[in-house]
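To assess whether ligand presence alters the predicted conformation, the chain was also submitted together with acetoacetyl-coenzyme A. Input:
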Amino acid sequence: MFDALLPLTETQREIQRLARDFAREHIAPFAAEWDRDQHFEPSLVGKMGELGFLGMLLPETYDGLGLDASSYLLALEEIAAADASAAVMMSVHNSLPTQMLLNWGSDAQKERYLKPMARGEMLGAFALSEPDAGSDAAGLRCQAVRDGDHWVLNGTKAWITSGTYDKLVVLVMARTDSPDARRGSKGISAFVVTPDMPGFGVGKKENKLGLRASPTVQLVFDNLRVPAENLLGQEGQGFAYAMQSLDHGRLGIAAQSIGIGRAALEAARDYADQRRQFGQPIRSFQAIQFKLADMATRLAAARATLHATAAAKERGERVTQYSSICKLFASETAMFVADEAVQIFGGYGYVKEYPVEKYLRDAKVTEIYEGTSEIQRVVIARELYV
Ligand code: CAA
């Protein structure tokens, strides 16, 4: 749906088809059950790694596919249309930790982590938020103190996607300034952390409204010993690295939102064709036609803006504002479309025999994570003055 609008290359169409076929075979048939049981299917990581879905943006030197941003976002949309939980795992991994390592990692860090990450032997996670630092990310308190050839980290990181997976590579933002001489966002550094480091603990697992097949946990660091060589890039630059990476991550969440919305629209379109009331299919009523038309219009606009932004990113342009525009508009579109889909299904939209109630639950978080809609508006407005 809406493919005609995008000038896709043959490679992009191939990637899209590959992802669609994979999602239809390996994800969609199980999505409702995984959602019900809050089950994270670990074999998905290996399977997605084999097909290259976990190294889409990494160069071939690091066993990646070396694809452009649009190819990646098209694949992500297909995965999200099958299950938003699988999509968030793929989005966080491809957009945040792997990109941070690629952009600012040392040669040794890249060699050690990027290849297994691209192959799906290790999965990436991103640890910026804390229980008391969400929108105000620079207010984080996790403290890192240098001790010989190690950094020692203490604190709790929150809302960590894929956090229960054992073969994890977590990019952790922690304070390296001293408590008596705080340096704001300049006092934050990034570290490459793995669960085998002494002092690494997995805390509370969240029981969520949606995205229930994606494990979201707290990570608890109790004198976590991180080798000094696992500092990423320069000390004090961790916040800027995280923000720059979120410019990219937010495009992934926009693609995820579009995938959820598209699945909701397709379900509503088909239902409106089959469901008969007052002696005719309900799609013959203008009340339903107007809903379907508004859903399709907003999705088409979200998708076009996303891929135009991806193209600008490929040209090397700064996309901070547009990335927030994409994320804001796509996530609010996903909520709108999923809500209208439930309405079109009527009572059947409100029960678990049909997929649309899940789309509504899954869509909500896209307005919250990787920066709330309110934070996206702050970024968009600020950028008007840059
Ligand atoms: N690119 C590069 N650098 C950036 C940047 C960007 N997009 N945004 C900010 N910076 C730099 C600034 O230039 C500034 O550096 P200088 O002082 O040298 O100029 C520094 O970072 C501090 O920036 P701000 O003064 O703008 O910082 P702030 O405290 O006002 O915060 C904010 C800005 C936009 C509100 C930011 O805190 C934010 O985005 N908050 C939302 C947090 C968020 O998105 N969390 C997502 C959690 S991860 C997640 O959800 C993943 C998941 O698992 C799904």
